[in-house]
Amino acid sequence: MNKLIETINLRSILLKKAIKLAEKEKERFPEGRLRVNNSGYTRYYKVLKKGDSTGEYLSIKSKMNTIRKLAQKDYNKQFLKTAKAELKLLDKLQRKYNQAEDEYNKLSAERQNLVTPYILTDDLIAKAWQSKTFNPNPYKPEKKIFDTRRGEKVRSKSEAIIADMLFEMKIPYRYEYPVRMHNGKIKYPDFTLLKVKTGEVLYLEHFGCLNEEGYRKDTLEKMDIYRASGIYPGKNLLLTYETEDNPLDIKGIRKMLEEVLL
Fold first, then answer.
1. Could you give the CA distance from residue 127 to residue 130 in angstroms, rounded to a whole number?
2. Do 90 and 163 sit in the same domain of this protein?
3. Can you say whether residue 88 is alpha, beta or left, with left for phi > 0 and alpha for psi between -120 and 50 degrees?
4. Domain membership flag for residue 104
5. Residue 153 is part of which domain span?
6. What span, in angstroms and rounded, lies between the C-alpha atoms of 158 and 242?
7. Which among 232, 207, 227 has a CA at the least distance from the CA of 217?
8. Distance between CA 81 and CA 12 in Å, rounded?
9. Are residues 254 and 143 part of one domain?
10. In a domain, 127, yes or no
11. Alpha-carbon distances of 190 from 198, 206, 209, 234, rounded to whole Å
């Protein structure tokens, strides 16, 4: 799924709500339709019969409520017709979308290995992004002693838990991938993440020693550098943390990842 499908889904939800509201309002309209005459100045008429070209004159002073209701009725009729047609079209588009990519997915594994798809599926995009080689953080590699399910080494038990969570949720990630900051220096966010359906790259930093004063100072300096480099919490930077009194919130992290990246 990508931004187009997200937009279609949101549009469909909006249309369904509006159609429901219009259908409910339709039951309260008075009989007839509104005729508007603009010769000289505007006059309003209530037309009841199909062949009537004149109708009953409606005074603006005494019949404005009726005028408004009839105008709303005419709009209601046209809106429902157009909105239902658009919703039908969007439903059809949702069913048809991605059928071209499905032709690759229908192939056997042997045939997939023999051909190059013209449009990359989400799985292929994730695989290609995740397989990129890079030079990891050179700082104390001997500190990477915790194993992940993906078969790599990380620096803490909590980072291993987060890495395994990303792996289980099929969220593509790179561990300690080098990112150039605004001042030209290289930083290594704990995790660089790919939101496959939009192509957005996000970063996740885990702060595991917030009890320590020196660690807090380094954290604040890092956040200043990130902010100056266009990496902001709430935009493209996710934060996790723990202290002696506040253990890692695994359930909360999973929910955050689901809402932001899936």
1. 5
2. no
3. alpha
4. no
5. 132-261
6. 9
7. 207
8. 15
9. yes
10. no
11. 22, 7, 14, 17
Q: What's the rounded Cα separation, in Å, for the pair 200 and 198? A: 5
Q: What is the pLDDT of residues 67-78, one digit of tens each?
A: 999 999 999 999
The two tokens of residue 4 are: 């187009």
For 1-31, how does the pLDDT look when each residue is reduced to its tens digit (9 = 90+)?
Answer: 567 888 899 999 999 999 999 999 998 999 9
Same domain for 152 and 71: no
Record the tokens describing residue 69, joined without a space.
Answer: 């209701």
* pTM (two decimals): 0.65
Q: Tell me phi and psi for residue 239, to 5 degrees.
A: -120, 135
Domain count, the chain: 2
